[in-house]
């Protein structure tokens, strides 16, 4: 069984629909008791880091997530919240990944919206994903390259597109908006 973590700031419907295409019916929950019963958790996020962390504290999920030992996938803001700190609202995050989330330099082209190539290290999550494949990104903040980065991309500067530390995975792009390749990424996560 798969859960989508609902903390009031996620793109739940699109992720749920993609899981339906993979013949998976997820539960949608914000309760730690429910999350203990599932095999994997997907943590989608859209919005502001400070608001999202406050929601996680209110739901008493911060320590629970930090100690979670099953496969856990953060998407976009859900990925950024796995880091130590975000410049968005000067927010202390979950601290699972030893990395910071930084704002792109102030240029006319911010934010990063659209398709961009990733360069990956052939981890199992990239099974059947050709090198330099395009995924759909929408963000103004990025995760610095860190020791757990398993895929990078470049927009103004090089940054971490996918990371993995133990059972925690994070993708900066949106698999649910990345057509067939996004579906493959999600399927690979489900098969881990």
Would you kindly provide a written description of the structure presented here, covering whatever features stand out?
The protein has 192 residues and is an alpha/beta fold. The chain has one domain: Rossmann fold (3-Layer(aba) Sandwich), CATH 3.40.50.880. The protein is 24% helix and 35% strand. It contains six helices and 14 strands. It has an eight-stranded mixed sheet with strand order 2-1-3-4-14-13-12-9. The protein has a four-stranded mixed sheet with strand order 6-5-7-11, covered by helices on one side. A hairpin with a 4-residue loop joins strand 5 (83-86) and strand 6. The longest helix is centred in the C-terminal third of the chain and has 13 residues, at 179-191. The radius of gyration is 15 Å and the shape is globular. The mean pLDDT is 94.
What's the helix and strand layout?
Layout: E1 2-5, H1 12-21, E2 27-29, H2 32-36, E3 40-45, H3 49-58, H4 62-66, E4 72-76, H5 77-80, E5 83-86, E6 91-92, E7 97-103, E8 112-117, E9 119-120, E10 134-139, E11 141-143, E12 149-155, E13 157-165, E14 168-171, H6 179-191
Parallel strand pairs: 1-2, 1-3, 3-4, 4-14, 5-7
Antiparallel strand pairs: 5-6, 7-11, 8-10, 9-12, 12-13, 13-14
